[in-house]
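Hey team,

Filing this mostly as a record. A colleague (T.K.) asked me to run one chain through the structure pipeline before their review meeting, and I want the input and output archived in the tracker in case anyone asks later how it was produced. No errors, nothing strange. Just documentation.

Input sequence:
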Amino acid sequence: MTVPPGRRERKKAATRQKIADTALRLFLERGYEAVGIRDVAAEADVAVTTLFSHFASKEALVFEQDDNFEQRLIQAVTRRAPHEPLVPALRREVEAMVRHCTADGAAPIWRMIDESPALREYEESMRLRHAESLATAIAADAELSRTPTASRAIARFVIDAYSLARQAPSPDAALDEIFHMIEAAWAVTGASADSTGTTGP
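Output structure:
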């Protein structure tokens, strides 16, 4: 049973969301480069130290769902039902991520990211980190019986699926196409493991 967050946790989450919302509003109004950390803290009515207790950098303010997305991908592996196939579980999470990042109002945010070298670099490092975390979770699952190399390859495909679908004219159609290929690659890695007698990482 999931225990509901306590008052302290709820207050902390509300402060974090307020900071992120304030930062995004200022970035879109004034331009990302024109807004400093102190500007965000003052507008959100928090101390700079409080801001940094929630966000490690200015770039992180734009990607406030970073940790949540990473944890959800990992949990798609670790919390799926017994014997539930992995790839459909991962697709559900990627679909949810794509819906979030293509919702109404998201286009100006992605234009801002595309125009900022610092934000593009942060996004790239974030995707690589998500892929490594996902690969670790896949390789650690004895039921999946995949090598670390196969796990990393599949994880990269899944993270790239999110990025490609987000930019596609029809995200759903793109996910159908990409995950058909991921399913095939996943099956091949399983067959390779069986043929070589590999039963785990």
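Quick notes for T.K.: The radius of gyration is 19 Å. The mean pLDDT is 91.
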